[in-house]
Write a structure and sequence with these properties.
Layout (H helix, E strand, L loop, with lengths): L2 H14 L20 E2 L6 E6 L2 E4 L7 H4 L4 H5 L1 H8 L6 E5 L7 H8 L4 E6 L2 H14 L4 E5 L11 E7 L8 H10 L1 E13 L12 E2 L1 H8 L4 E7 L5 E8 L4
Parallel strand pairs: 4-5, 4-7, 5-6, 7-8, 8-9
Antiparallel strand pairs: 1-2, 2-3, 8-11, 10-11
Bound molecules: S-adenosylmethionine (SAM).
């Protein structure tokens, strides 16, 4: 091989090995802008992650009797919840993910006949159970609303949104909270009641608990400010936010 041919070959080989020409390895890393990630699907979850938290599978209507269990009064102290909510007569309230209406009728009593509770559900079977419960209790100021997983479809603006043991089941939490915030009156409150994720002695499946820090982290993406966290309940915390004033 003559010297010129040898040099040409060396140049060709070195060019073909330069990093710029090496194809990038395929990546499964989420892009920095991706809102949700897909990951391992655990027994109670859907394999979709938001801020590092796996979203829980929603509770189906087949488990509705659990929502009306007698021990619930001692375990969740609805009397203390109502005290903490500080509802006023005439308030408009949304009970999102209301289930059978365990909290809907209690709030309806607190706000009186001039007030109204929207009981929002994605499961029509739960709405039927809500209706039956309200009839059974003679409560007339609770209105069932069929929502979607991105929009509660409230008929009008509300003073307060309550979510008891629900938020961790939202499969589109960002979009759902964005819609909720739009449907809140200025200065309106959003209240999360979740089993305390910080406390290993609370006998609830991990994906159905949430820490205060996680809720605050996820709400930082919304036009909400944290007001207080009330810790008077035996197993849950009540995390209260207010809608920020529009700029
Ligand atoms: C564990 S139950 C709690 C029911 C009620 N809040 C209570 O404490 O008795 C959760 C409920 O949230 C509902 N849910 C889940 N995702 C929802 C969403 N995006 N919009 C409305 N309801 C939802 C489920 O259908 C289920 O009935």
């Amino acid at each position: 091989m003559n010297v010129r041919l040898h040099t040409l070959l060396l140049i060709l080989i070195s060019v073909s090995l330069t990093p710029a020409q090496t194809p990038a390895p395929p990546t499964t890393e989420p892009t920095p802008t991706a809102r949700y990630q897909t990951g391992q699907r655990t027994r109670d979850g859907i394999g979709k992650y938001y801020f590092g938290r796996e979203i829980a599978h929603f509770m189906t209507h087949h488990a509705a009797p659990w929502l009306e269990r007698r021990e619930r009064e001692q375990e969740e102290r609805p009397d203390l919840v109502l005290k903490a909510l500080q509802l006023r007569p005439g308030d408009l309230v949304a009970d999102i993910g209301c289930g059978t209406g365990y909290f809907s009728w209690r709030m309806a009593q607190a706000i009186g006949e001039k007030g109204l509770v929207y009981g929002v559900e994605i499961q029509k079977e739960m709405l039927a159970l809500l209706d039956a419960q309200m009839k059974h209790r003679g409560v007339q100021n609770v209105q069932g609303v069929q929502g979607t997983t991105t929009d509660p479809k409230l008929p009008g603006p509300v003073d307060l949104v309550l979510m008891v043991d629900v938020y961790h089941e939202f499969d589109q939490p960002f979009e759902m909270m964005e819609s909720i915030c739009k449907q809140l009156k200025p200065g309106g409150r959003v209240v999360f009641i979740e089993y305390r994720g910080e406390d290993p002695s609370v006998p609830i499946k991990p994906l159905h608990k949430m820490t205060e820090a996680q809720v605050k982290k996820e709400m930082a993406a919304q036009p909400l400010e944290h007001i207080e966290t009330i810790k008077t309940l035996p197993r849950q915390h009540l995390i209260v936010f207010r809608k920020k004033a529009a700029k």
